[in-house]
Amino acid sequence: MPAILGSGEHRYRVVEDFAKLPDGWQLTDVASVAVDSRDRIYVFNRGAHPMVVLDREGNFLRSFGEGLFSRAHGLHIDADDNLYCTDDGDHTVRKCTTDGKVLLTIGIPEKPSPFMSGEPFHRCTHTALSPKGEIYVSDGYGNARVHKFTPDGKLIKSWGEPGTDPGQFNIVHNIATDADGWVYVADRENHRVQVFNGEGRYETQWNNLHRPCALCCCGGAKSPTFVIGELGPGLAVNRKVPNLGPRLSIVDARGNRIARLGGEAGPGVASGKFLAPHGIALDSQGDIYVGEVGVTDWKTSFPDAEMPAVVRATRCLQKLERVRE
After folding, report:
1. What is the residue range of the signal peptide feature (predicted)?
2. What is the CA radius of gyration of the chain?
3. Is residue 88 a contact partner of residue 29, using CB atoms and an 8 Å limit?
4. What does the pLDDT look like over 109-130, one tens digit per residue?
5. What is the spatial distance between Cα 260 and Cα 179, in angstroms, rounded to a whole number?
6. Which of 279, 211, 281 is nearest to 246 (CA)?
7. The total number of structural domains that make up the chain
8. Are the C-beta atoms of 19 and 26 separated by less than 8 Å?
9. Which of 6, 26, 131, 317 is the most exposed place for a label (fewest CB within 10 A)?
10. Whole-structure pTM over 0.90, yes or no?
């Protein structure tokens, strides 16, 4: 029987063997996912075909991005089904159509800003849009900043610096916004999500998280909820400690936990377990798609075990179907 995760109104059934790819194809790491207005799933991955498009049943539709993307990291889709593809390998954000036509590029490909300079970009990680269409970019591994751009890619302002105080970041890994314009930032190695107004003023933070990595705002404009993908331990000293993830947490707009999915017994490839949740999206039915970087994370979680072939093939994409009965 497929595993069931969560409790109460937030119960999800793991869909086994969801992605049905052409023979010989592999997703490798799935850095991020997005769902368009027709419930097509965009799988931004680090295999030979960077953007794989599936239907709700996991059937392959098409791919694009071959030769364009260096290292998939973040993916956001807007109300017009434009894709914002964040590539931390060549330090760019590309706005694309759903058939792969590039409409806008922010950043200079393969030309990072100096490490921790605060200038965009040095291994940028993700994007989100304001209600006016302004573009927020989390940046990232070689910076500790959030940048705000006009819809056509002109820099408006930036905020953030390395550290642990409010408004400071230790791996600014993901970013989301809501209909009121609040900005939510996954401050991964500070184990928190920080909340800002649209101008970068610190408002509050959500704690009791473990290495928040993926961040998705959902649930509608009036009562938004958030699904947060949390990584498991990253150090040898606590590698085998239970109840630290990897897992998903569902929280309300104040950061109060509504539900938690998995993570009690650590990572794994068995049904109901996660490897390294890195990107999350929901479809119109409330089903959750989870992209995982299980290949990159394998030696961190399982330093003495051989990685099963299924991890590189399709296991880094999971579908969790909401239980409705």
Report:
1. none
2. 18
3. no
4. 999 999 999 999 999 999 999 9
5. 24
6. 211
7. 1
8. no
9. 131
10. yes
